[in-house]
Write a structure and sequence with these properties.
There is one protein chain. By secondary structure, this protein is an all-alpha fold. It folds into 2 domains: 2-67, Arc Repressor Mutant, subunit A, CATH 1.10.10; 78-209, Tetracycline Repressor, domain 2, CATH 1.10.357. 80% of the residues lie in helices and 0% in strands. The chain contains 11 helices and no strands. It has helices spanning 2-39, 48-55, 60-66, 69-86, 88-94, 100-117, 119-131, 138-153, 159-178, 180-187, 194-209. The chain is elongated. The termini are far apart.
């Protein structure tokens, strides 16, 4: 009878312990996200000790849950950027009175503004997608958000052309961001200046969409 009582109680104890254990994983993620926002361009200076102190967990849990700090940071960056991409649909709704090209221009400018205002986070996200592409990574989700707008701009294009041109557009924006210093040296265009960035982006749209 006593053994049966123990057997009945054990599963609930294990579940409770597992819940606490998994909660530590989310606390680590949230602590890292908070530090990323606080550090900004200096996010590379974030240490495992800082993260664990903020999350109030032991040092070993970072390696257990995420293997290493870099993978934890990449996961956090992905979550941050995901929240921005999730807002793309609502942004399209707010621009109903604009033409298809104006909507695409608006969305592109908003995207580039985010990239430059959150340089370290954006760079980490893009490079992570390049290093290990996935069907559901941030680059692909951005591509899916842009595709219907490109289609609206060029309804005469077939599916293959639309997909290829949208891919070109996302790639051009990412490379413009990553190589903005080279663009400054070659063309004298400073993409950190909003007006110059807007003009450069509009030129990219005209070139790719052929309008």
């Amino acid at each position: 009878m006593f053994k049966e009582g123990i057997a009945l109680m054990s599963p609930s104890r294990k579940r409770s312990g597992m819940e606490i254990f998994m909660d530590s994983k989310e606390r680590i993620i949230q602590a890292a996200i908070d530090l990323i926002h606080e550090k900004g361009e200096h996010m590379d200076d974030i240490t495992v000790r800082e993260i664990c102190k903020r999350a109030n967990v032991g040092l070993g849990l970072v390696n257990y849950h995420f293997e290493n700090k870099d993978k934890l940071i990449e996961l956090c960056v992905e979550r941050i950027v995901n929240r921005i991409i999730d807002n793309f649909s609502s942004i399209r709704e707010k621009t109903d009175k604009l033409t298809a090209f104006e909507k695409l221009d608006y969305l592109g400018n908003m995207t580039l503004t985010f990239l430059f205002e959150h340089y370290a986070v954006s760079k980490t996200s893009i490079l992570a997608d390049m290093r290990m592409p996935k069907e559901d990574d941030n680059t692909h989700r951005t591509y899916l958000a842009y595709l219907p707008l490109v289609s609206a701009c060029r309804p005469d294009w077939d599916k293959e052309t639309l997909e290829r041109k949208t891919f070109y557009l996302i790639a051009a924006m990412q490379q413009s961001f990553l190589r903005y210093k080279i663009i400054m040296q070659l063309y004298g265009i400073d993409l950190t200046v909003p007006e110059e960035r807007k003009a450069f982006h509009k030129a990219i749209l005209h070139d790719i969409l052929e309008v």
